[in-house]
Amino acid sequence: MNRREMPVASETVRPDPADLGIEALRTHVAGEMQRTRDRSITLTSAVDDDELVEQHSPLMSPLVWDLAHVGSQEEIWLVRDVGGRSAVRPDIDDLYDAFQHARADRPSLPLLGPTEARQYVTTVRDKVLDLLERTPLEGRRLVERAFAFGMIVQHEQQHDETMLATHQLRRGAPVLDDVPPPAAMEADSLPAEVLVPGGPFVMGTSTEPWALDNERPAHEVHVADFCIDTTPVTNGQFLRFIDSGGYDQPRWWSEQGWQYRQHAQLHAPLFWSNEDGTWWRRRFGRVEPVALDEPVVHVCFHEAQAYANWAGKRLPTEQEWEKAARFDPHSGRSLRYPWGQEDPRPEQANLGQRHLRPAPAGAYPAGAAPCGARQLLGDVWEWTASDFLPYPGFAAFPYREYSEVFFGTGHKVLRGGSFGTDAAACRGTFRNWDYPIRRQIFAGFRCARTPGRDELS
Ligand SMILES: [Fe+2]
């Protein structure tokens, strides 16, 4: 077993690609690609080759599939399309096309072995670094402000988070280093919720250079007054729902949610177990008592919705979540991040796999939004009440399969990123989506509610 240091996000502020000159932009892109590849290497060298090709859960691909898939997408988009160069391995395009093969079927494919996969991604990367030096980063939308390179960095980071979820599902001794997150600050004196006054705000973006198509364009949205929890819902709060019989009372669940709760026999968050009245959880190979002050994680949309109903609240809409996270009432503008315009620093958000768990509720005061809510970015993905739908004026770019084919009522939107999400793949406008039954992702939630008239006077 080869234990590796966990990647540590850069302590320096990551520059906004929009602010850089062309040569500085090239340097920035190369740095982001290297930092991302280091994380992929950490995740795939932490286990031996047998475990790399093994399927740890039918919900996930073998880790070696993710690795070669990352290289395949990099080859298709950057080597072939942006660079106009000849294909490296056109014979494996189909094997690593996520739309051709369900995750459960991938272990039975004639995949590249660990050594071959590593050689392949290195060969592709060498070609990409060469063409990064020569490609004009303007004049064609795909390369404007290095968009395609940014898209590939985000894609690899997203697979790194997926691989981290595979590590969580894997059985066996711990192989990843476990650095504790910071403690909560003044958590006891924090209000349970904050009020966000009604009014318009600008949602989405038309200017963020590496924003993906579903985040575009910027558009004005009117949101009525709402209250939103200051922090994500904690394990301690969720335990009260369990202890009061929340999993056994259909009145808290939607019809679809109750059906799923019955079918899947849900009784607690995934990876929890109860022994002699004590709740334990398994976290990356370690079994430990459930930490009461941490945000709950590994709950599906239906569980989040049932809790919110039980608590007399509801899940926030995606519009409410983004307004709480971005709207600055002093300037009337929408910020890139809750704390402002600069990219995330370690003291602002639990991102980038620096820690293998969410920080206690109330941590990261430096990352608070203007409304006072904390931990909107990082820690846990947050389920919203909203279906994944296009914004007005949406245009698929650069391909329909990135977002457009997923729009509709089948997927719910998640916001804010988790401890396993890299800063390059997370911002105030970033939208994630998944099935409402999904539990292996690093997802929790916070609640919202519509205030009564007497509260507003
Ligand atoms: Fe992918």
UniProtKB/TrEMBL annotation:
<dbReference type="GO" id="GO:0005506">
    <property type="term" value="F:iron ion binding"/>
</dbReference>
<dbReference type="InterPro" id="IPR005532">
    <property type="entry name" value="SUMF_dom"/>
</dbReference>
<dbReference type="Pfam" id="PF12867">
    <property type="entry name" value="DinB_2"/>
</dbReference>
<dbReference type="InterPro" id="IPR042095">
    <property type="entry name" value="SUMF_sf"/>
</dbReference>
<dbReference type="InterPro" id="IPR024775">
    <property type="entry name" value="DinB-like"/>
</dbReference>
<comment type="function">
    <text>Catalyzes the oxidative sulfurization of hercynine (N-alpha,N-alpha,N-alpha-trimethyl-L-histidine) into hercynyl-gamma-L-glutamyl-L-cysteine sulfoxide, a step in the biosynthesis pathway of ergothioneine.</text>
</comment>
<dbReference type="GO" id="GO:0044875">
    <property type="term" value="F:gamma-glutamyl hercynylcysteine sulfoxide synthase activity"/>
</dbReference>
<dbReference type="InterPro" id="IPR017806">
    <property type="entry name" value="EgtB"/>
</dbReference>
<comment type="similarity">
    <text>Belongs to the EgtB family.</text>
</comment>
<dbReference type="InterPro" id="IPR016187">
    <property type="entry name" value="CTDL_fold"/>
</dbReference>
<feature type="binding site">
    <location>
        <position position="69"/>
    </location>
    <ligand>
        <name>Fe cation</name>
    </ligand>
</feature>
<keyword id="KW-0479">Metal-binding</keyword>
<keyword id="KW-0408">Iron</keyword>
<keyword id="KW-0503">Monooxygenase</keyword>
<keyword id="KW-0560">Oxidoreductase</keyword>
<feature type="binding site">
    <location>
        <begin position="103"/>
        <end position="106"/>
    </location>
    <ligand>
        <name>gamma-L-glutamyl-L-cysteine</name>
    </ligand>
</feature>
<comment type="pathway">
    <text>Amino-acid biosynthesis; ergothioneine biosynthesis.</text>
</comment>
<feature type="domain" description="Sulfatase-modifying factor enzyme-like">
    <location>
        <begin position="190"/>
        <end position="449"/>
    </location>
</feature>
<dbReference type="InterPro" id="IPR032890">
    <property type="entry name" value="EgtB_Actinobacteria"/>
</dbReference>
<dbReference type="InterPro" id="IPR051043">
    <property type="entry name" value="Sulfatase_Mod_Factor_Kinase"/>
</dbReference>
<dbReference type="Pfam" id="PF03781">
    <property type="entry name" value="FGE-sulfatase"/>
</dbReference>
<protein>
    <recommendedName>
        <fullName>Hercynine oxygenase</fullName>
        <ecNumber>1.14.99.50</ecNumber>
    </recommendedName>
</protein>
<feature type="binding site">
    <location>
        <position position="155"/>
    </location>
    <ligand>
        <name>Fe cation</name>
    </ligand>
</feature>
<feature type="domain" description="DinB-like">
    <location>
        <begin position="33"/>
        <end position="163"/>
    </location>
</feature>
<feature type="binding site">
    <location>
        <position position="434"/>
    </location>
    <ligand>
        <name>gamma-L-glutamyl-L-cysteine</name>
    </ligand>
</feature>
<dbReference type="InterPro" id="IPR034660">
    <property type="entry name" value="DinB/YfiT-like"/>
</dbReference>
<feature type="binding site">
    <location>
        <position position="159"/>
    </location>
    <ligand>
        <name>Fe cation</name>
    </ligand>
</feature>
<feature type="binding site">
    <location>
        <position position="438"/>
    </location>
    <ligand>
        <name>gamma-L-glutamyl-L-cysteine</name>
    </ligand>
</feature>
